[in-house]
Amino acid sequence: MPHTINNLLLSHHRPTEAYRCLRVSWRGTAHLVCARCAGGFVGAALGGCLLATGFGLPPPWVALAALLDWIASATRIWQGNNLVRVAAGLLLGIHYVTNLDCLWHHSFSLSVLLVNTALVGVWIGTLLWMRKIE
Q: DSSP labels for 33-72?
């Protein structure tokens, strides 16, 4: 697939990692969409619907599932599969809405701050560790 803006936004994986993507046809053209990101898009929409209808949002730590899945596959502890990636992305998308809700309605939420700090810290730590072993 050529490097177009659509491909870069929808699938940020190398061609050898196409198995981490869902194949979607749109107007006769096949596109690869990152499975975790696809779940995130659906999760954000679901979280928005839950919020709009008055249902409560889950606690912010649900995003840890996506982080654990990403670390496990990035460090090659396990390959995972697209069903797990979509489910982890779904929880991550709901987490995005939880963050926005907390920022919009509450000036400060310690639990959201701690979870986000942990997510970013572990993500950066994993990237640095992977760079060290390559």
A: EEHHHHHHHHHHHHHHHHHHTTPPPPPGGGGHHHHHHHHH
